[in-house]
Structure formats: structure tokens, C-alpha cells
Amino acid sequence: MELYDRIGDGYALGRRTDPRWMAAVLAALGAARTVADIGAGTGSYEPRDRPVFAVEPSSAMIRQRPPSASPAVRAVAEALPIRDQAVDAALAVLTVHHWTDWRAGLAELRRIAPRQVVLAYDTRRHTEFWFVREYVPEIAALELSRPSAEDIAAELGADSVTVLPVPWDFTDGVFPAHWRRPAAYLDPGVRRACSALAQTDPAAVDRGVNRLRDDLASGRWQERHRELVELDEWDAGFRLITATTGTR
Q1: Percent of the chain surpassing pLDDT 90
Q2: Under a CB-based contact definition with an 8 Å cutoff, are residues 58 and 6 in contact?
Q3: What pLDDT score was predicted for residue 194?
Q4: Span 2-244: which CATH code?
Q5: Among residues 128, 241, 215, which one has the least CA distance to residue 179?
Q6: Which residues pair with 234 in a beta bridge?
Q7: Would the pLDDT of 160 be above 90?
Q8: 67: phi then psi, degrees, rounded to nearest 5
Q9: At 69, is the pLDDT very low, low, confident or very high (cuts 50, 70, 90)?
Q10: Which residues contact 212 (CB under 8 A, 6 or more apart)?
Q11: Which of 73, 71, 74, 105 is nearest to 91 (CA)?
């Protein structure tokens, strides 16, 4: 909560819904008539065709929810103000790794809904991202301290785990979104939309960004990553997890 109260202003500008991921989320929700969006943020991946009960701990994020989005209640995942089995599906998009007690939060998802849909990521895969490996290796320790998609799927007893690749022209500014557009990381606005960068020593980030700037100017980055510019999408480790714990 404190993190996004600090870095959340302007977050909606860099974190825009990508229709390809939105289609995957809607498919995972299926016929769920009502949805609770936990860690809802600005509502990027909330369905607009059914009732949504949004829960978000950060007031900075709630202020940025568009007028068309459902109203949000300020609360944390570990103590949801929702009755047992009150909704058809509980949705959690790129939020579990921020929870203070992620297992307690997942238990709450199971309590409030018979279906859980969680978008998470393989933390090991993020440590292999070229920006981390070559420029800001300090990010790796943070990523490895977070619950990985595999851990979350096991805790939920997942029915399915679907790979969500990141297209080269991805519109949602998640940390590895610009894997084929490295100059984007020179933009402070892009970096502010990435919690991994916001939680890393600013001196380490500045050092890495300066090195990246030099490598782009000299052509060293392009030479090292020639294979990337030929790809249309890349597996950055994002996984869409679905689980069913019962029938309402």
C-alpha cells in the first residue's frame, strides 16, 4: 500500500490495458457473472460487461480509476470485506507479489469465490531479463524474494497455467514490456511505472540506465541482442493461473 501511495501518481499513463491480455483474462473468467478484483489498481483488466467489486489498498491508485470503472473499496487482500462465496470469481492481476502475506491473501480469494483467476509471473524468468542481468542485477534479489507463479499455482491447486507472452508492441508498461524497445527504459516515466525499479536502490538504477544509454549509442546493445529484434513476442514469465475450489 505504501509503495503505490508513493509511486502511484501517473501510474495509469504507463500501465494501459493490452487487448491481447484482456482477452485471455476474460476467457479465464468464463461465465462468471460477478467478479471481485483484488489489488485492483486502476482497473486495467476488469471486465466491463458484468458487476465488479474492486478492492485496492492505495488511495493514489483509486484516484486514477476511470469514471467507467467500478467503485473501489480500500482494503488489503489478506482481510477482504466480502462475504464467503459472495462472487463467482476472484481476479488478481500482477498483485500477489506485493501482498504482505500472500498465502493468507490467496486463502481469502478461495473464501470469497469458487473460481480464482490470478495473473502472476515466474520470478526466475524475470532475473534472466537482459535489463536485470546486464544493467541492474540488484533487481534479482528483490524478484527472488517474491512468490513465483509456480508457488501461487501450487498454493491454489491450479486447474490450468497459461503462458502469456509479451508482444513486442505491448501497451501495458510492465517491467519487461520493452524487451525489444530498450530506449524506453531511458524514460523516467516508464521506469516509475515499474515497481521493481521503484523498489531498487536509485543509485543502482541510475548506474544501469547510464550504461544502457552508452550501449545504445555505441550499438553494443543491438549487437548483443540481434536475435531479440527478430521476435514478435517473448516469454517474460507471465502466467495466467485459474483454479476452482467449489460450486456456488
Answers
A1: 79
A2: no
A3: 86
A4: 3.40.50.150
A5: 128
A6: 166
A7: yes
A8: -60, -30
A9: confident
A10: 131, 135, 182, 185, 186, 221
A11: 105
**Rounded distance between C-alpha atoms, residue 213 and residue 44, angstroms:** 31
| Residues contacting 67, CB < 8 A, separation 6+ | none
Query: What residues contact residue 173 under an 8 Å CB cut-off, 6+ apart?
Result: 14, 15, 16, 190, 193, 194
Planar angle of CA 145, 22, 139, nearest 5 degrees: 20
Q: What confidence tens digit (pLDDT) does each residue in 102-143 have?
A: 999 999 999 999 999 999 999 999 999 999 999 999 999 999
Whole-number percent of the chain with pLDDT over 70: 93
CA 61-63-65 angle, to 5 degrees, is 75
234 closest CA partner among 165, 172, 137:
165
d(CA 161, CA 170) in angstroms, rounded, equals 21
| Model confidence pLDDT, tens digit, residues 223-234 | 999 999 999 999
